[in-house]
From TrEMBL:
Pathway assignment: Isoprenoid biosynthesis; isopentenyl diphosphate biosynthesis via DXP pathway; isopentenyl diphosphate from 1-deoxy-D-xylulose 5-phosphate: step 3/6
Organism listed in the record: Dyella lipolytica
Entry function: Catalyzes the phosphorylation of the position 2 hydroxy group of 4-diphosphocytidyl-2C-methyl-D-erythritol.
Xref: HAMAP family: IspE (MF_00061)
Binding site for ATP: 270-280
Gene Ontology MF term list: 4-(cytidine 5'-diphospho)-2-C-methyl-D-erythritol kinase activity
Record's keyword terms, sorted: ATP-binding, Isoprene biosynthesis, Kinase, Nucleotide-binding, Transferase
Keyword Transferase: yes
Domain N-acetyltransferase: 3-154
Protein name: 4-diphosphocytidyl-2-C-methyl-D-erythritol kinase
Keyword Cell division: no
EC number: 2.7.1.148
Family: Belongs to the GHMP kinase family. IspE subfamily.
CDD domains named among the record's database cross-references: NAT_SF
The encoding gene: ispE
Amino acid sequence: MSFRIERAVTAHVDAICAIERTAVQMFREHPVWPFYKAISIPPEQLEEAIQRGLVWVALDDESNEPVGFVWLDTEHGGDVIGIAEIDVLPAYSRRGIGAALLEHACDWARAAGYRRVDLGTLADVPWNAPFYAKHGFVTVNKWDAAFAYARDRDRENGFPDALRVFMSRRLSLPAADEWTVWPAPAKLNLFLRITGRREDGYHELQTVFRLLDWGDEIRLRTRDDGEIHRLTGVPGVPAETDWLVHAATLLRTHAGVRAGVDIEVEKRIPMGSGLGGGSSDAATALVALNHLWKCGLSADELAELGRQLGADVPVFVRGRSAWATGIGEHIKPITLPKRWYAVLDPHEHVSTETLFQASELTRNAPPATISSFASGETLENAFEPIVRARHPRVAAALDWLGGHGHARLSGSGGCVFLETATIEQAEAVARRCPASFTAWVVEGVGLSPLHRALSRHGATG
């Protein structure tokens, strides 16, 4: 048989869970069986990992069905990533599928700047520790403080300490001519108020940007010929109008470098959604290429370049959730409580330009304060009444989500969201989402995933 490895999609959830339940049967005669049979993959957690791009499947080329999978987790943080689960259907064993999945996951982790891959496994099972040892993993002292997180997780799952060993594989940083992987996180506007209009036609606004641990993925490979090539892009967006290409070109010109770059993008943030996809992609290009091209520009200089591309780009460049004023360029980092969000995509594009031109838009609202936002008094979005009137699918999404709490519109787009105090609450809402919408469960973060990646890749900023 032949197979290929692709990123998993949410439609694979049931198949992946079935693979795990089938594969675990191979441990029936092992002392670990009572513990393995008692736990299974939580579908909600798996779906969230898939949405974040942390799961890959091996697909049978003939049937196009998953026959194996690997799932990475970022629980440890820093420059360490873990293998949460890797399984292959027993009927497809000894065909190199497990090895291909493992190497694919490690290659991605290396491109993303991770320096170590950890896992927990069984020492006396041939397809466990001996298999990993063949692929560069070594047994480590599980009592080392660095592996406390893994010990805690094993105990939460009911695994006795004596049955499992921990293994690690060191990863080198990518070479200058290799692909690197960078996140372009989405954002939510927790409120948006327009307080005036300037003589140049731009609107004065107030908003809170909440960065999310989810978004697009940008892949970059430097060139020495000065060419900027977009190898993949967004349907309907020509390279000459792509903010990614504009950002790379602007940085190259400003910094006076002769380097070039190949660009690939995996879009997860819908266009016209109000989640900042184009702005975030541009910011990621500026920040990542400043590092890869060794331009040496400061955060202030990169933010100013970002402002030339779009009003929202600077907040992504600076990488902190923030209170923003002016046309969005005056940014003050803000500390927000730990929260999760059920985000709904009604699949209806909303034009930012059209909204700003709407005659019924309120342009003279009194200024809000941080204290009024923190108290919950200021949570409105100035564009919501217009979007409700002109976009029935968005209105329907707001109405449905409003049945579970305070539904809000994000930015000047079509996506809507509900804030929750726990991930379980957000998952419960997402499970009930009508089939006509797409739901994501995402975590709000104070520090951007882009800046965490920058740190992993050995840079500061």
